[in-house]
C-alpha cells in the first residue's frame, strides 16, 4: 500500500530540480504553503548529496559585510571584509563600528593556541578495580591504539587520551587534530576502529559505548573551557583612550567599571561567556560560510579579559577555547558559502587557523561595540532607528 503522507523520494536520483518540485507540490497540497520563494534558487541540486536530504529549495538569508578589520595574526594578516548572515538590524553596523575602533588602535592581535576534536567512549567492567587496570593498559598500549585509529584517516592524528573512572566505568576522551575539517565524523570513525582494536586485544572481556557523552558533541561544557574542543584562539588589543572617547564616546575607566559589573552578572547567571555577545558574530559568520550551525553552542563559550592600563588605555581580549570551524568539507563547498570563504581568503586546505583568527577578531569587534553602546546609551536608540522593519 502507498502511504499518502510519505514525503516523495527517488532512490536513484533524489537531488534534482524535478524531485525538489515534486516535494514542494506535495507539501503545498498537505500544508497550503506555496513555497514560492523557497523554490526560487540558482544552485544545482546535484552538489547537495552529503549535505541535505529531502531537498525542497533554499532558505535565503540576508548577508551583509562588516569591516574592513585589521588583523595582525599568525595566519590571518591584513585587512578583511567579514560576511555576516543575519536578520538582526544594527548587527552588521555594530560590528563595523567595533572594527573601526580596532583599526584606529593598530589592529587586533590573534593567536591560535591549540586545536583538537574528541570522541569519548565509555568502557564498562565488573568493578572499579578492573576499570582502573584497564586505564593503565590503555596508557601502555597507546601507540598501538593510535595506529588503529589513524588507519581510518589520512588527516586525523590521535595526540592523547584523557581518562576518568566513575563506578565500574572508565571514560576515555580521544583527542585528535583534524587538519582543516571540523572532524566530528572523522574522529567518530577513527575511535570506533580504536575501540574495536581494544576489545579484540585487551586480555579480559570488556564492552563499550562509542560515546559516553564526555565528548559533549553539540553541547556546551566546562570541560571544553579547560581542554579545547576545536580551536583555542585568542584575540587581543590595547584600546587607546583617545580613540574610544572619539568614536564610542566612552571613557576607559567607565568601561573598566562596567566590565567588572558584567563579569559578576555573568558569574551569578552561570553564563558560558562573560562578554556581551559572542554568539551573534559566530552564528552570522557560521551561516555565511557553511559551518555546522549547531556548533555555535560550543563555539560561543569563552572568556573576556580586561585590564585598565596606567596610562588610561584599555587592554581587552577574547579567548574562545572551543571554536569549531572548517574551511574544507561539509557545507563549506556549497556555492554561496564557498564565495564567502573566498572573500576571506579562507576556502580550502591550510586555512582553518586563519579562519579561526578572523572569527575571534570579529567577536572582539562586536563586544567592543556593544559594550560601549550600552554604556553610552546607544543600545536601545540604535535598534529603534535601524532594527525595525515594521510600520
TrEMBL record:
Pfam families: HMG-CoA_red. It comes from the Bacteria. Its EC number is 1.1.1.34. Keywords: Membrane, NADP, Oxidoreductase, Transmembrane, Transmembrane helix. Coiled coil: none annotated. Belongs to the HMG-CoA reductase family. It is an enzyme of class 1 (oxidoreductase). The keyword Coiled coil does not apply. PROSITE patterns: HMG_COA_REDUCTASE_4. InterPro entries: HMG_CoA_Rdtase, HMG_CoA_Rdtase_cat_sf, HMG_CoA_Rdtase_eu_arc, HMG_CoA_Rdtase_NAD(P)-bd_sf, HMG_CoA_Rdtase_sub-bd_dom_sf. This is hydroxymethylglutaryl-CoA reductase (NADPH). The chain crosses the membrane at residues 358-380. The keyword Ribonucleoprotein does not apply.
Amino acid at each position: 500500500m502507498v502511504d499518502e503522507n510519505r514525503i516523495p523520494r527517488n532512490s536513484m536520483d533524489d537531488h534534482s530540480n524535478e524531485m525538489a518540485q515534486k516535494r514542494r507540490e506535495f507539501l503545498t497540497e498537505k500544508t497550503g504553503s506555496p513555497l514560492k520563494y523557497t523554490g526560487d534558487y540558482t544552485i544545482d541540486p546535484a552538489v547537495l548529496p552529503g549535505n541535505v536530504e529531502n531537498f525542497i529549495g533554499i532558505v535565503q538569508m540576508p548577508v551583509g559585510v562588516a569591516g574592513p578589520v585589521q588583523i595582525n595574526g599568525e595566519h590571518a594578516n591584513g585587512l578583511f571584509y567579514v560576511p555576516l548572515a543575519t536578520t538582526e538590524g544594527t548587527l552588521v553596523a555594530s560590528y563595523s563600528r567595533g572594527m573601526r575602533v580596532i583599526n584606529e588602535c593598530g589592529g587586533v592581535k590573534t593567536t591560535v593556541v591549540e586545536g583538537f576534536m574528541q570522541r569519548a567512549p565509555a568502557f564498562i567492567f565488573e568493578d572499579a578495580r578492573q576499570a582502573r587496570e584497564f586505564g593503565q593498559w590503555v596508557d601502555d598500549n597507546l601507540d598501538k591504539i593510535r595506529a588503529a585509529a589513524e588507519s581510518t584517516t589520512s588527516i586525523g592524528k590521535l595526540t592523547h587520551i584523557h581518562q576518568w573512572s566513575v563506578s565500574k566505568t572508565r571514560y576515555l576522551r580521544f583527542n585528535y587534530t583534524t587538519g582543516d575539517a571540523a572532524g566530528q565524523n572523522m574522529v567518530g570513525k577513527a575511535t570506533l576502529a580504536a575501540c574495536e582494536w581494544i576489545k579484540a586485544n585487551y586480555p579480559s572481556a570488556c564492552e563499550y559505548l562509542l560515546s559516553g557523552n564526555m565528548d559533549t558533541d553539540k553541547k556546551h561544557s566546562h570541560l571544553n573551557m579547560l581542554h579545547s574542543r576545536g580551536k583555542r584562539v585568542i584575540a587581543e588589543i590595547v584600546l587607546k583612550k583617545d580613540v574610544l572617547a572619539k568614536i564610542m564616546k566612552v571613557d576607559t575607566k567607565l568601561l573598566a567599571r562596567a566590565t567588572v559589573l558584567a563579569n559578576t552578572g555573568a558569574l551569578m547567571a552561570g553564563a558560558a561567556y562573560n562578554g556581551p555577545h559572542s554568539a551573534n558574530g559566530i552564528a552570522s559568520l557560521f551561516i555565511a560560510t557553511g559551518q555546522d550551525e549547531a556548533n555555535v553552542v560550543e563555539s560561543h563559550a569563552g572568556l573576556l579579559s580586561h585590564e585598565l592600563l596606567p596610562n588610561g588605555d584599555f587592554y581587552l581580549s577574547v579567548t574562545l577555547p572551543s571554536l569549531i570551524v572548517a574551511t574544507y568539507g561539509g557545507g563549506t563547498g556549497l556555492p554561496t558559502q564557498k564565495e564567502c570563504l573566498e572573500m576571506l581568503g579562507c576556502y580550502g586546505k591550510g586555512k582553518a587557523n586563519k579562519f579561526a583568527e578572523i572569527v575571534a577578531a570579529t567577536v572582539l569587534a562586536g563586544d567592543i561595540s556593544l559594550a560601549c553602546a550600552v554604556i553610552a546609551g546607544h543600545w536601545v536608540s540604535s535598534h529603534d532607528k535601524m532594527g525595525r522593519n515594521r510600520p
